[in-house]
């Protein structure tokens, strides 16, 4: 008798979580490990948000809430969409979940039928394809690369659409590349999507972490017709440094939301009542901490990219958003020492081999690009202090110098 369900045969454990866990284990054993793996800000949750959670507990707000979120949090989300994005929603179009990942999971479980195709531009967040497979959908991966700024073009999108296409995933700013689409980029994609019977999922989780005055735009913001066919997913984890609070939210078609509510009601039920109170304070309260964190991220962004560009064989573009650098290591992969490692280890993934050696021999945790659909690169989160960034990149440089021999 097979103990494990067959559906799990097509799913891999999250590599980002696995690498972070291994790095933490090595740190606990006393090693000086620099961790570029975790996709979470290193700042504390702002004080006024924590105070709101304490107040909620003191007021006895520790019971079940409606499955899809409290009325007051939904009102805060509706206000956020209207004031910041120019998007109007009703309460029955809003759902709150235990993190953006659960909202995305419930969306696909509520909308996909076996064989439905989902277009996913690569490099992509590690969970997109696996969640689609769990929902019995078929991921259709469309490759982008450093030459296109890691952004899918309208021509690529048009070519990928078939009669089986049900969903297109749009993520800007992007995890893992930090690429962000301009208004004209989004308008070009909308021209392709608007006439089609396709749902666009806009993953806006890094919306507030965007640099150089670039305007944030998602497909729903382009036209009312596009808004009706777009499901927007966001959350408080990245912008407000609330990863552990586990609050995400979605907005879109009321029928989809109703069925997501059913899914959630038969699995986790409501998100934490305390976390919902904290999220409400995050959305309607003082936004100064967000600006302060963004300023620090911007400084780190310039630091890490500048240092990476000094390493032989490494090509790194400046990300427009999020807190990740996604350097191409193709020049390093051609070095004699790396070719020798390939022969010894018999590893088929270049980026995995590089990251394995980097952690085991140089005490630096990074995520292999193969996890995001691009083996040419590695992902480095710069959500850590400047001294650690300098130390970690210096170790990467040392590894590359050793591979030149």
TrEMBL record:
Cofactors demanded by this protein: pyridoxal 5'-phosphate
GO molecular function, one term: transaminase activity
GO BP: any one term: amino acid metabolic process
CDD domains in alphabetical order: AAT_like (cd00609)
Keyword line: Aminotransferase, Pyridoxal phosphate, Transferase
PROSITE patterns: AA_TRANSFER_CLASS_1
The protein's Enzyme Commission number: 2.6.1.-
Enzyme class: transferase
InterPro entries: Aminotransferase_I/II_large, AspAT/PAT-like, NHTrfase_class1_PyrdxlP-BS, PyrdxlP-dep_Trfase, PyrdxlP-dep_Trfase_major, PyrdxlP-dep_Trfase_small
Tree of life domain: Bacteria
Domain Aminotransferase class I/classII large positions: 32-396
Annotated family: Belongs to the class-I pyridoxal-phosphate-dependent aminotransferase family.
PANTHER family referenced in this protein's UniProt entry, alphabetically: ASPARTATE AMINOTRANSFERASE (PTHR46383:SF1)
Protein name: Aminotransferase
Native organism: Leptospira jelokensis
């Amino acid at each position: 008798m097979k103990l494990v369900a067959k559906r799990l045969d097509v799913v891999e454990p999250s590599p980002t979580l696995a690498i972070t866990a291994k790095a933490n284990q090595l740190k606990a054993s006393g090693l000086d490990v620099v961790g570029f793996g975790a996709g979470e800000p290193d700042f504390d949750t702002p004080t006024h948000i924590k105070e709101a959670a304490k107040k909620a507990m003191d007021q006895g707000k520790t019971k079940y809430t409606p499955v899809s979120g409290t009325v007051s949090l939904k009102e805060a989300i509706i206000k956020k969409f209207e004031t910041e994005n120019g998007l109007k929603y009703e309460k029955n179009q809003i759902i709150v979940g235990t993190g953006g990942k659960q909202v995305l999971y419930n969306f696909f479980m509520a909308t996909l039928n076996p064989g439905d195709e989902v277009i996913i531009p690569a490099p992509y967040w590690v969970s997109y394809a696996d969640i689609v497979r769990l929902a019995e959908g078929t991921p259709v991966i469309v490759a982008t690369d450093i030459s296109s700024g890691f952004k899918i073009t309208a021509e690529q999108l048009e070519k990928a659409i078939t009669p089986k296409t049900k969903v297109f995933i749009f993520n800007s700013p992007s995890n893992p590349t930090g690429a962000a689409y301009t208004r004209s980029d989004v308008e070009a994609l909308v021209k392709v999507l608007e006439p089609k019977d396709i749902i666009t999922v806009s993953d806006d989780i890094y919306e507030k972490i965007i640099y150089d005055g670039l305007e944030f735009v998602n497909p729903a913001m382009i036209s009312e017709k596009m808004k009706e066919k777009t499901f927007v997913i966001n959350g408080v984890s990245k912008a407000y440094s609330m990863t552990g609070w586990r609050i995400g939210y979605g907005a879109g078609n009321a029928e989809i939301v109703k069925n997501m509510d059913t899914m959630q009601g038969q699995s986790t039920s409501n998100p934490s009542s305390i976390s919902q109170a904290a999220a409400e304070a995050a959305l309607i309260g003082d936004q100064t901490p967000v600006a302060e964190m963004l300023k620090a991220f911007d400084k780190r962004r310039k630091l890490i990219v500048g240092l990476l560009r000094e390493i032989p064989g490494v090509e790194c573009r400046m990300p427009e958003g999020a807190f990740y650098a996604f350097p191409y290591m193709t020049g390093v992969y051609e070095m004699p020492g790396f070719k020798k490692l390939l022969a010894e280890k018999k590893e088929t993934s270049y980026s995995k081999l590089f990251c394995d050696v980097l952690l085991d021999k140089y005490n630096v945790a990074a995520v292999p690009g193969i996890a995001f659909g691009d083996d040419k690169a590695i992902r480095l989160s710069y959500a850590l202090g400047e001294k650690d960034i300098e130390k970690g990149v210096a170790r990467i440089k040392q590894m590359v110098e050793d591979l030149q021999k």
